[in-house]
Amino acid sequence: DGGITQSPKYLFRKEGQNVTLSCEQNLNHDAMYWYRQDPGQGLRLIYYSQIVNDFQKGDIAEGYSVSREKKESFPLTVTSAQKNPTAFYLCASSPSGSGNEQFFGPGTRLTVL
Amino acid sequence: KQEVTQIPAALSVPEGENLVLNCSFTDSAIYNLQWFRQDPGKGLTSLLLIQSSQREQTSGRLNASLDKSSGRSTLYIAASQPGDSATYLCAVSPPDTGRRALTFGSGTRLQVQP
Question: Is A61 on the interface with B (CB under 8 A)?
């Protein structure tokens, strides 16, 4: 069953803690993305990776970090430096070519207590 | 900087009605445009992808058009059903091959009344 999985579905964090959100895809896609969604708003780009071992900052990268050690995995760490981390986090992937259609995972809802 | 706007922000229609959702973007230099559906608390489901060289795409009761020169796209839903109730998002991809991340609109929240 091909697709994108994200875990956990819900995550609670105390202030000052770092947390890591998992994103895995078995679609053999080269590119992967992390977006953040706040209530009533569209998605904003945090980080993206076009290829293994390479990633770039998006529009709102401050307070976040990523790694891309394997093609199928693109974990996102929300650090204590992120001042307002409560949001819905969505991971996506796309193939090279084929119109660059992006496919999304089910999301992780992060709440800071 | 690319900006994407969706109008209306919310829409309520009776079942069976045909409807049009609008999307506009400020920079016509795009690689493609994608329409998504999002159910509450869920991820995004891709509905239609239109390449910059195309004018429209169809899938079942959905038809999306693209007028790149005027920076507009419309999503037409025929014979709406209560199951169509969701938020619809449009997003554009830049031509830069080094960064194909999407810029999103804020969405149109659609409710179809039975």
Answer: no
